[in-house]
Amino acid sequence: MIKGEDKTMDIVSNIKIERSNGSKLPFVDFNNIKFGKQFSDHMFVADYKDGEWQNLKIMPYAPITLSPACAAIHYGQSVFEGMKAYKNEDGEIFLFRPEENAKRINKSAARLCMPEIPEDMFMDAVKQLVEVDADWVPAVEGCSLYIRPFLFASEELLGVRPADEYKFIIFTSPVNGYYSDEVHVKIETEYSRACEGGVGYAKAAGNYAAALYPAKLGQEAGFKQLVWTDAKEHKYIEEAGTMNIMFHIGDALITPNTELKTTLAGVTRGSVLTLAEELGVKVEERRVTVSEVIEAAKNGTLKDVFGTGTAATIAQVSSITYEGERFDLPALETRTLSNEIGQVLQDLKRGRAEDTHNWIYKI
Ligand code: COI
Q1: Ligand 1 atom having least distance to the Cα of 266
Q2: Which tens digit of pLDDT belongs to each residue from 200-218?
Q3: For the whole model, what pTM was predicted?
């Protein structure tokens, strides 16, 4: 049920389409999908050279050839996005707020001295790629087609400077939920994901690489994810793993603000806050102290903790550990707010709920 202005997307870019000879689809079991392990038949590729985007094409998904001196490999000029396409029972395909991803990749790109991707080009590429691989969008409840746009410096270059040549590629992958079991987290007080003045607000590949080692230590200690805290004092909460994080304390939904640019302004994050406000919940975007969360866990006012992100959508947290003390959170089925918002989002994305915000694009 789509309401509001017509969000059918017009195509303005000149994209050449070369179709694959055969499809890998017969080898995919949509009832048994693993996150990020299977890739659809086609990908979009564009080159940035001589100050402009060129060679826009959709072609069979395949390895790409790069120079060993490719700048992204050495100096990390690489940013990405994550978005999803959904299919309803009638086979119609929807995208959720794709223009937000188009804007955000350019914020990330600007921070890493990379060229802007015109929003029209981004949107056309996503739309046409999803159209070409429409059969790859799972209709199974809880599943979707994950879309991974990424931009990286492809110039053969050893000097440290912003590259002059880039590639913008999009591929897609049918996925199910990101977490298959309980999410137990630890509040990290030694390592940091981001610092003020850094690149925490950008979806930069290096942010994820820097998180791997502390996350590995956390996993070895039995934690699914780490809750990142500020780099100066480890006193303020920032994110959880690769997600934004929210706390339902008393009658308020509280989440770290993004002004210090150490956290990513997630599309799911923004959507959840809007929906929560509409449900009459008091929303607070501000600095969140570790101590207030622990205090709330101790005095029983911490009703819910959940991560938000494109991959996970809403990931309810089962327990939080801080300085060796574990706090178990209420049973998942009793979490009224995250369950309700999760359902609204799911219905919207599958075209089952009235889209009063104009968030849904029909392909
Ligand atoms: C997303 O939610 O799209 C993410 O960025 C998580 C991803 C690293 C799997």
Answers
A1: 2
A2: 999 999 999 999 999 999 9
A3: 0.93
